Structures are given as C-alpha cells and as structure tokens.
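Field notebook, page 419. I keep forgetting to write these up properly, so this time I am using the form the group agreed on. The chain and the ligand, flavin-adenine dinucleotide, are recorded exactly as supplied. Prediction of the bound pose follows.
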Amino acid sequence: MPAASAPLFQPYLTEDHRDLQRHVEDVVTAAIAPLAPLMEARGPHTDREVRQIVSETGWLGLLIEPEWGGMDAGHVAKTVVLAGISEVSPAAGAILQASILGAAPIVERGSEEMRRAWLPEIAAGRVWPTIAVTEPETGSHVQGMTTTARRRGRSGFVIEGEKDLIGNAALGDVHCVVARTGKPGAPRSLTAFLVEQHMPGLEVIRRPLNGLHGFGADELRFNQVHVPTSHIIGEIGDGQDIALLSSVVWGRLNLAAVALGIHRSLFEATTRWVSTRPRYAGHLADLEPVRRRVAEIWHRLMTAELVAYHAAYLLDQGQPCDAWLINSKLTAVRAGVRSANDAQQLHGGHAGRIGTPCEQLKRDIDLINAPAGPEDLQLKRLAEQALGPARAEWSVQHAIRRSARRRAPTVTAGPDPAS
Ligand SMILES: Cc1cc2nc3c(=O)[nH]c(=O)nc-3n(C[C@H](O)[C@H](O)[C@H](O)COP(=O)(O)OP(=O)(O)OC[C@H]3O[C@@H](n4cnc5c(N)ncnc54)[C@H](O)[C@@H]3O)c2cc1C
C-alpha cells in the first residue's frame, strides 16, 4: 500500500472504531457509491434514498445515548462515518451531518420527556431533525434574528418569520427552530422550539445550491405556526446558548469531517490523474512542479485529519477543547479549498468540464465554508479564545451535562411522539 493510502489518524481509533470503519466502507461501497453519480447527475434536488440507506445503519443515532436506542459512539466515531461517506458522496455526508446536528438541541438541552419522545425515533431513523437558526437578512448574527415566537395564551407560542439555508429543510420531519421571545438586545431573548414538518403554516421553499447535489439547504417560512409549550427546548431564553452549543460542539467537527472526505477524494483523484496522464516520455507525475503540488495537497490533508481527530478525541475525553473544535473546521475547510485549487491547476482545462471529479469536488468543498460559521467567524472566535473577551467553553458544558446524564437512573424509551 503506498504511504498516502494509509489512514493517518490510527492512534485515535480503538478496535470499535476500526470495526465501524470497516462497516462504513461496506455500506459506502454497496449502497452509496452506486448512488453518488446519479445524485450528481440529477443536479440540485433532495435525495431521499440516502435517508433510507443511512436510517437502516443507525448512524443518525451515533451521538444518542443507548437508553434511547442510540449508539453513543462519540465524536471520533462520527468523524470516521462522516468522512468515510463524504469521500464517496459529499452530498450524502452533508445530509447525514445536517440531521446529526439537528438532534443536538434535544440531546443537549431537551427535557426528559422531550428526549423520551423524540430520541428513540431519531436514533431509529424514523424522524430526521434539522436545526434552523440562520435568517435571510441577519445570517451569522444570531442575536439579530427577527423570527418571533409570541405567547398565545397558555397553550403555546406562535412563530412568524423566515429561516434560510437550512440543511435538510425539505427532508426533515422536525426542525429545532431558534426564535425571538424577548426584546432585541435583551439578554436571554431567544428560545428554541421543535416545529414539526406537518404543522399548519410551515412552508418549505426550495432554493437550489450550486453543489452538493442531492443535499438541500432551503428556506423555511413560518406563517403563524402554532407550537405547544411541550415543544420548547430547554427553558425560555436558552435559544442562543442552544444555537452556539450545537454549532461549536457538534457542528464544527461535523463539517470538518465532511471536508476531510472531500479532501481525501480530491487527493485520490489528483494522484490518479497525474500518474496516468502522459507527458513527454512519462507522465505528469514525473514533473517536479507537479510532484510539489501533490505533496502540498497531501501535507494539508494530513494536517487537517490530525487536527480533526485530535479535536474529536479531546471532546470524547470530556476535555475543554473549543479552540480545537473551531480549529478543526477552519483547518479542514481552508486546507480543502487550497487543495482544490491545486487539483484544478493539475487538471488543466479538464477541471472545467462539468461532472468531472475535480469540478464537482471544488464546488462541494466551497459550500462547506459557511455552515457552522464561515472562516472569518472561526477566526473571530479563535481571537476571542486567545485575547478575550472570555466566553463560555461549550465543550465543558457538554461534558458536564453528559456526565450528569450518565449518572442519572436509566430510563426506558417511551411512546411514539405522534401518538
Ligand atoms: C451548505 C450549507 C448548509 C447550511 N446548513 C445550515 C443549517 O442546517 N442550519 C442553519 O441554521 N444554517 C445553515 N447554513 C447557514 C450558515 O450557517 C450561514 O451561511 C452562516 O452562518 C453565515 O451566514 P450568512 O451566509 O448569512 O453570512 P453573513 O453572516 O451575512 O456573513 C457573510 C460574510 O461577512 C463576514 N462577516 C459577517 N459577520 C462577521 C463578523 N462578525 N466578523 C467578521 N466577519 C463577518 C464574513 O466574511 C462572512 O463570511 C448552511 C449554509 C450552507 C451553505
């Protein structure tokens, strides 16, 4: 085996992780690889076959505790799964990551009743959740959001407004929606709610992306959607914390893993290309400048893999690691985008042919920058870690709640949320 084909992150993997890795390879080879070119050829659409395939594996429950039917396999395991899928189909990786992330608010802050009602359904793949924070005007400025949730008597809240770029908006069954319940600028003025796809007044508006064909990040419009108080996630006023905790602890690494898969695929496609494309008496791979660019791609891939697995490992160990989580996404996306540029150079004019791996992967990696915060926002957060002002360590809050839940008495999965 050439050195470049060997996994670089072995020290972080246990025997269970290796078993999972083999299982991922089997599922990807048997079910996702044959689907990937069809998804790509169809262009922007919402693919439901990936949902079916992944639901059967139980991977939607990778981070859900066993008492709710999940695997509780941890973030290293999740990275193995998302990177393995994304190497063959970045869109399939994006579909799974968006709904793993969608479960974060319920896992992290849902009441016992809410977790009992929803997590078994999610772990079994019968219910796919999403997280809906971003708005058309305010984007990453979460505190500026204008979607409102107004109290309607004692029975619940009425949500009015719009969310945009919501991963799996059309595929999801339930959305974890953050909305304004207090005055703009006031502390604790945002609250998170579960909004079910069938609730009257909820509309999905398709807004196609230029890549990740098969994955959709669409608009959700809330026209006076009535939500019962049982659907509040955590407490009134917890919305901003829930959005940030989900994004930092779950989202950054999810996206890093998808970027790793794309990056590895770019590396493989490029080494194949330069090793087989004739030039003079040999191949492109014999030319020194070409070799140098391939070395640069591999160097970035190795670095990105190490950072992501290190961050996931620290998180699984319950260590404070916000800076590593931020760094994992920053490094994976930056490295992947730069390698896509090198791959484009090495493919010459052929990189512009629609449907070639290089063209597709370049489009796809570009789309991984914004979700869970674009590069400039990651740098802003890293600067805060280095220079202040001090912020809550979300990884610590995650670890504290997780160990508290593990100490709590075991409970059994309850009835179907629809009943
Ligand atoms: C494929 C994909 C999937 C997504 N999935 C989801 C999802 O599931 N749920 C969800 O809620 N959202 C999702 N998003 C939305 C994503 O979270 C937002 O795109 C992101 O938060 C940035 O918001 P914005 O695009 O409105 O950019 P803006 O916030 O408008 O920022 C645009 C640019 O302005 C600069 N900028 C803005 N603010 C600052 C600042 N404070 N400091 C420095 N520079 C700044 C940066 O250069 C930034 O890139 C997804 C997006 C994509 C592309």
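OBSERVATIONS:
- The mean pLDDT is 94.
- The pocket of flavin-adenine dinucleotide is lined by residues 98, 130-134, 139-141, 165-167, 217, 367, 370-371, 373-374, 376-377, 380 (CB under 6 Å).
FOLLOW-UP: compare against the apo run.
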